[in-house]
Specification:
Length: about 475
Amino acid sequence: MATSQTVSTAARAFVVSFIIMYFNSVYIVLGLVPFTLAGYSLKDDYSPDRFLDMFLFDTFEDPTHGYANFVDQSTARTKGLLESDKRTVTLRADSTNVASGRGRDSLRLTSKAKYNHGLIVVDLAHMPGNACGVWPAFWTTGPNWPSSGEIDIIEGVNLQPGNSMTMHTSEGCSLAGSSCLSNKGCPVKGGAFGDGFNLNKGGIYATEWTKDAIKIWFFSSGQQPGDILGESPDPTKWANPISTFQGGSSCNIDSHFKDQQIVFDTTFCGDWAGKEWSKDNVCSVKAPTCEEYVKNNPKAFSEAYWTINALKVYEFDGSSTSSESTQQPIPSTPIATSVQQPSKSTSSQSVQESTPSTLASTSAQQSSSMVASSVPLVTSYVDGGPVTVIVKPGSMVTQIITGEPVTVTLSPGAPIPQQKQVQQDTSPQIGDDVDCPKGSNFTEEALRRTRRNWRVRRHLAEHLRNGGGQHS
């Protein structure tokens, strides 16, 4: 009896091993991702419905000596400085009242979580616009400043046209050709900021922090890589970063950056905007001091707010903490757009060269033709109106194309573009909510595959709980 059980157990073990080997081989053939490969995976999703629970509302005096009164969450709600729904979170500075006391009412939020290495991606619909006296920032900082470092991702003051990215550390660290010591730091200019950022309807900043370097990317709205807010983004497939703070003999990254918390804040005047006041030919004529102007001109700060679409933090799975590893997960197929980054393209052509199974590139004029899949991940939208889903074997993302016209909204003062026929790109971006048209047929396999992509997975999960099958 014991011998029979031993043989049976050995047989089962052999069968299980064979199945695992077989499916790993199938994954490799299809260009999919075997479970053992290293890469970035989602650690924390600061989605709008959880965002406020994952941050602390700071109420202490501004350590940068700004003319700002940071208020708590309840006060922010009462005064209309905080808005949130299922899609966005908005953080405002007061633009209604004459300021008093510590300064203009505003918000400073610090994440409860602390991080060591990772990839931080923030998608913003709006950031504080340019105004005399304003000083907005999106950054990370560690304890016992500056000994644990500070990474300024988005920052600027007054009427500054472009973004300033700066590292701040204790002694013994030089990056980007200069010392990062204390307040001065080692700044690099790049990316959109203020009014310029908002005129382009927002964008995405991504920051990768490894033991070797800190890199920052900026993508205008509509030009981001298709995987940037997915479950497994791959920065090695993106365009070149706008700044690279390379560590090494001049700076041991791990010694100078640790236990970083994420911060959103909008302050006024203080150690930077205030000190620049007398040097600014436009701002200095508005009032003798920065504080006096900020105090008495609330309407000047009607654009001093952040609207956050998404904030995600990823950690690297594997023995290495650097994304430069030679073994990377195959990225989700990027959605085709009419404009691509000028270098290290993330277009569908470059992905097809490295990934055998990808989506076919299809124009709006070709949208009437269906491309069927032998093993469909998501079946075609048969009765969904002027929408076509292109699915090919092994694809991780489907592409939806329509020929609907684009409505262009011009901001005040913006030039009127030349009239031309435009085809709207309605391809779902990572994190979008996607409706399921009548006639769509989703399966458990579709849900499993889609779990690494859009929020459509939530809709699918509810659909399957209600019995699955054809979606009516």
